């Protein structure tokens, strides 16, 4: 590489003067030093993004930088944790300074927006891959775990679902004939949701003491819900007509030619939405509605948890007549729930 490892780190990622509460020593020494707030416990999450697998090869470096951080902050949000700092391990095929500058710009656009300092990192040469580790703090009794849900709890999801799935169809230029007349503004929105997801950090922290369980929707609602059900030993009834859709997906769902089925498939199974899925006791519905107004973020009640295992999908009160749709493996009666 034209620049050695330390030159790269210094030029694009070391930011002297960045102050963050509890950060005693940031990037540049053998390890960072960070104080943990009194009475809180450390929440740690790490994710690797690989070119061609987690983002298209032609994704912009700005978007890759944003998303690599966003998916990790989303995991902290899903625990109800407040981010303290992140580390970044970059494997790069070459020291492309234009690429690095744009990557750093995307990464810090999100980091600075949440006041999250980069406290350490590493760079090596190889096929493009990005690993971020996020460190957060949460009072241990208030952490939003997956195993705290109870039967009859209501299931909520934040924001809208399925936009990233639609965005991926655009990004991969999939031949979907009914997308032909799709309004350009909705297309821009879907691509932004795919490439620059919003970690729901304020919501996650506000759900402390309200939610009985929570997780983020990274792999698709049905698959992620399956993990929550397995952890809590419960089943669920999902009301598909309540799934929160963006105006673009509403528009598509009204088109013919299998569009509604495709929209449902994106909302249920495409993943990459990074919304929060959470359960609350029935008496907490008002608290959730107040939170939605306070955060100006839609929080939709999409069903409830049941003591009977498995998953029951309904549309307007009637069973949704599809046999194991969307590859989901956790239907009622299946042995793995
Ligand atoms: Mg997660």
Largest sheet: 7 strands, mixed
Q: How much of the polypeptide forms β-strand, as a percent range?
A: 15-25%
Please tell me how large the radius of gyration is. Answer: 21 Å
CATH superfamily of the largest domain, by name, is PurM-like C-terminal domain
Number of domains: 2
Shape: globular
CATH topology of the largest domain: Phosphoribosyl-aminoimidazole Synthetase, Chain A, domain 2
Named CATH architecture of the largest domain: Alpha-Beta Complex
Which class of the largest domain in CATH terms?
Answer: Alpha Beta
Q: Number of helical runs?
A: 10
Strand order of the largest sheet: 8-10-7-11-9-12-13
Category by helix and strand content: alpha+beta
Estimate the helix proportion, in percent.
25-40%
Low-confidence sequence ranges: 327-337
Characterize the quaternary organization of these chains: single chain
C-alpha termini separation: 51 Å
List how many beta strands DSSP finds: 13
Mean pLDDT: 88
Ligand inventory reads: magnesium ion
């Amino acid at each position: 590489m034209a620049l050695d490892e330390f030159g790269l780190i210094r030029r694009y990622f070391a930011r002297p003067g960045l102050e963050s509460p509890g950060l005693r020593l940031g990037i540049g020494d053998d390890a960072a030093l960070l104080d943990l707030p009194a009475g809180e416990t450390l929440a740690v999450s790490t994710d690797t993004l690989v070119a061609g697998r987690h983002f298209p090869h032609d994704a912009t470096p700005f978007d890759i930088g944003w998303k690599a951080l966003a998916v990790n902050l989303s995991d902290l949000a899903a625990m109800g944790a407040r981010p303290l700092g992140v580390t970044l391990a970059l494997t790069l095929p070459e020291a492309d300074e234009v690429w690095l500058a744009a990557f750093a710009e995307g990464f810090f656009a999100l980091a600075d927006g949440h006041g999250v300092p980069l406290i350490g990192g590493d760079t090596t040469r190889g096929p493009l891959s990005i690993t971020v580790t996020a460190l957060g703090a949460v009072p241990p009794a208030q952490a939003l775990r997956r195993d705290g849900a109870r039967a009859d709890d209501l299931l909520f999801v934040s924001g809208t679902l399925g936009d990233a799935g639609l965005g991926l169809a655009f990004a991969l230029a999939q031949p979907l004939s009914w997308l032909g007349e799709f309004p350009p503004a909705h297309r821009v929105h879907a691509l932004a949701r795919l490439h620059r997801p919003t970690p729901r950090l304020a919501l996650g922290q506000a759900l402390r003491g309200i939610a009985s369980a929570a997780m983020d929707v990274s792999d698709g609602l049905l698959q992620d819900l399956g993990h929550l059900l397995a952890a809590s030993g419960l089943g669920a009834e999902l009301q598909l007509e309540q799934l929160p859709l963006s105006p673009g997906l509403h528009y598509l769902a009204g088109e013919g030619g299998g569009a509604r089925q495709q929209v449902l498939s994106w909302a249920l199974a495409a993943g990459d939405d990074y919304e929060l899925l959470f359960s609350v006791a029935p008496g907490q519905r008002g608290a959730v509605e107040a939170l939605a107004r306070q955060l100006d973020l839609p929080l939709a009640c999409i069903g409830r948890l049941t003591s009977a295992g498995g998953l029951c999908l309904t549309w307007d009160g009637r069973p949704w007549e599809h046999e194991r749709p969307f590859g989901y493996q956790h239907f009622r009666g299946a042995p793995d729930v």
